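Training component of the fellowship. As part of building independent skills, the fellow (R.M.) carried out the full modelling exercise for a liganded target. The chosen ligand was zinc ion. The inputs are recorded below so that the supervisory panel can assess the work.
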Amino acid sequence: MNNFKLVISDKNLLKGIPDHVVKSAHLKAKAKKTKGFLFTIDFPSYLPIMQYADNRKLRKDIYTAYNTKASSLMDSKFDNTKNINHILKLKYEMSKLLGYSDISSMLLKTKMAKSSEEVISFLSKLTKKATKSALADIDDINDIAKEFNITKVMPWDMPYLSEKLKKEKFSITDEEIKQYFSINNVLNGLFNICKKIYGLDIHETNASTWHEDVKFFEIFNKKKQLVGKFYLDLYARKEKRGGAWMDEAISKYKFMNEEESPVAYLTCNFTPPSNGKAYLTHDEVITLFHEFGHGLHHLLTEVTEYSISGIKGVEWDAVELPSQFMENYCWEWSVIRDMSYNKKTNTYMPKKLFNNLLESKNFQSGLQTLRQVEFALFDIKLHTEYSPKNRSFMKILNNVRAQVSVINTPTWNKFPHSFSHIFSGGYASAYYSYKWAEVLSADAYSLFEEIGILSKTAGNKFKKEILSKGGSRTAMESFIAFRGRKPKINALLTHHGLTN
Ligand SMILES: [Zn+2]
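Fellow's submitted model of the complex:
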C-alpha cells in the first residue's frame, strides 16, 4: 500500500472531491517536495475519490491500484500469492495432523456453526433473500448513470453513483444529525436503557486514569451491590490507537474465598469536545452502543471461573450478539427522541429527520448483503476445498462471484491478496460470523419488539440466559434458553428490508 502513489498536477481533474481531501493531498505532495496533489490507496485517500471524483479515469486508476495491491499486477516484489499458498498449506497440514478432513472442519470445531455445509446453506439462504433487492439496487444505479452519460456501469462507477443516488433520495448530512446528540444526552440515554431493562444504576466516580479525558464509572444492581466498573475513553487524540473497542481490564473470578469484580475499558475515537461540548454523529452513537454491549457481556457475567467468564470462551461467531443487540436501540424513535433533547431550546430532533435517517439505513442493503456473502462464501469454500493439489484460490473466488454477485467484477481484481481478515486476522473459515451473529442479535431483539423494547421481563431474561453465562455453556444453549427455540433468520431480513 505504501508503495503506490498517484500525483495529479491539474486541479481540474479533482472536481467533485471534498475540499479537505484535496487539501490533505496537496499537503502530502508538499511533504514529499512534489508539486500538485498526492493520492495513496489508504482508505481516507481512496474512498473519497471513489465516491466523489467526477473524473471517471481517475476513479478507474485508483480502483485498479486498490484492487491489484499486493499482487504481481501491482509489483511482483510485493506479491502475496506465495504467502497465501504458504499459509493455506500450513493450515492444511495442521488440520491433517489433528485428524480433520480439511481446514474448515478444524476451525469450525470451536464455532457455533458445526460444519461448512451448515455455513454454506446459511449463506445460500441469504443470497436468495438478498438478490431481488440487490437487482433493484442495480436498476436504480443504471437509471442514475444515464444522468451522468455512463452507458455501461463499471465497478469504479458504483460508489460514485451510489453517493449521487443517496443524496437525491435522502438529503441528510452528518452535521445536521450531530447537533442533536450531545455526549451527555447519549450516555444518559444509554444508562437509562440499562436501568429500565436490567435494573442497573451507573454512576461516574473518581479514579486515577491515564488521561484527563478518561472517565470512570461503577455499576450497581437492584440490591445496590457493586457489579462492575469501567473506564470510558471517548475521544481521539495524538498517538492513541484508532478505532473503537472494549477490552478486559479485570475479569470476574473467584479464588479461595476471594472474588474479584470485573472492570472494562471502553475506548472510542470520537471528535474531541470544542468549547467543552462534544457531539456525536448517528454512526458514532451506534459505535458507542455496540462497544457498551460488549462491555455489559464482560461486566454482567456471573461465571466465576476465570477462563470462561464474560466474553472468554464464547464462540467466535456468537460473540457479537450482545454488541449488535445494543445497536437496535439506536433505531428506535422513543430512544432517539429522548437522547436528542435540547434543554436550552426545549426541542427534540424532528420526527421527519429521524424517518429520513431510518429510510437511509437500508440503502442498498441487498447489494451490501451480497458483498458480505461473496467474501464469506469465498472464505469458507477456500478453507474447505483447498488441498496442495487444488491451490487455485482465484478460481474458487471466480466461481463464487459467478454464483452470487450481481456486479461484474473484473477478473484482474485481486481481492484475496489483501483479504487480511482471513490470512492475518482471526477470520479464517469465520467471515460468515458477521452475518451469523447478526441473525442472533436481530432474533434476540425481536423478542423485545414483541413484548416491549424496554421490557424488564425480556431484559432480565437476556441478562440471565445470555449476558451472564460467558463460555459456561454453548452459545446455542444460551440462545435457546433465552428465545425458547433455535435462531431464525426472519428478524435479520426484516431489519434490512429484505422480506419481499
Ligand atoms: Zn464488536
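The panel noted the following from the submitted structure. Residues 116-147 form the longest helix (32 residues). Residues 178-356 form a domain with the Neurolysin; domain 3 fold (CATH 1.10.1370.40).
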